[in-house]
Amino acid sequence: MSPSSPHLKGALSTTNRTISPPALRRKLTPSSEHVVTPTRVPCATSDADASADLFRVFSWNVNGVGPLLQKQLIFQSNSAPPLRAFLKRHHWPQFLCLQEVKINKNDTATQRALERAANEGNTTPEPTYTAHFSLPRDKYNATGFGGKVHGVATLICDDMSPAVRVTTRRPDWDLEGRVLIHELENQVAIINGYWVNGTSNPYRDPVSGQVNGTRHDHKLRFHQWMLQETLQLEATGNHVILIGDMNIARSRIDGYPSLRTSPVQHVKNRADFNAKFITSPNGMCGIDIFRHLHAEQKSYTYYPRGRPWGESCDRVDLIIISRSLIMADGVVGTDIYNSPAERGHSDHVPLSVSLSFTRLFSSTSLDKNLDP
């Protein structure tokens, strides 16, 4: 695995459900729905503000970054791009992990535009952000729409304590622009992932171009590769946070009006994910933090456009964490921001997790005897 440069880097990609075109002309639309916002927490850490201990990571499958780069929308009160407005509305999270950004790896102009949209309209003492990218470079499996498919980006707040310096890398095995691994100096690792969607479409060997099974087969390989990354990070003492669109609704409560069971391979994919990351003693033995904290609450992240809100929805964007984070009492909370206003131009809504570094590093307990 080779480390990537921390600033504006491209690399890999594949698909979620069916591939939709980049959202270049789609507009964010006003909504009367109430937008839930968290308690004010500054991105910058300072001794003067006790709440600065809270470290917040947001995730959002944006289904194309085009609408986030627009200068001004009718319902906005200022000229800041929608991305900057999103960051401000959620009170400057330290991390914003984006999936399905749909940027060609050679399109450095759009990469710069995304970082500019995160910072444009900045006024002191508001924070600024640096963008990191992993974009598709698979010439056989990520070529739709001129290479504007898949892709992940992470916006990291520039104004963080030296105690949480970040190293960013992209795993060499991921040619489809699906993974960014961020290792914090204090041994918290955040993996921003746009996980493979299983379909019966052919998967081609990225070197020879020969058909090598289906996208279902590739999804299972992706699960194994992600598990290996996770276990390696945990073995070196890291608390791991897997966050993003995982293209899995884990159980019946996570699908409405019903859980997807046809074709049967979806059931097998779900079982493989749950075993590797939740239930198997040989796997991550991770914690689905939303289900852990909210038990039987029904809340969803994928709301397909073109259908009435709530008619069909799934919780496929997940946050799976090392159970060491729970045993150390390091998790403050988690949320899903499921309203039409928060969905905006996308077909997914954002979600977040909050950590307390003070609580986390006052404990060194690493007990795996915790129920999933």
TrEMBL record:
UniProt region (Disordered), positions on chain: 1-22
Key words, A-Z: Hydrolase, Magnesium, Manganese, Metal-binding
Residues under site feature: Transition state stabilizer: 247
Cofactor(s) it depends on: Mg(2+); Mn(2+)
Pfam families: Exo_endo_phos
Source domain of life: Eukaryota
Record-annotated active site: 194, 245, 348
Annotated site (Important for catalytic activity): 317
Cofactor note: Probably binds two magnesium or manganese ions per subunit.
Binding-site list for Mg(2+): 61, 100, 245, 247, 347-348
UniProt record, GO biological process: base-excision repair
GO MF: DNA-(apurinic or apyrimidinic site) endonuclease activity; double-stranded DNA 3'-5' DNA exonuclease activity; metal ion binding; phosphoric diester hydrolase activity
InterPro entries with a match to the protein in the record: AP_endonuc_1, Endo/exonu/phosph_ase_sf, Endo/exonuclease/phosphatase
Metal-binding recorded as keyword: yes
PANTHER family with a match to the protein in the record: AP ENDONUCLEASE, ENDONUCLEASE_EXONUCLEASE_PHOSPHATASE DOMAIN-CONTAINING PROTEIN
Protein name: Endonuclease/exonuclease/phosphatase domain-containing protein
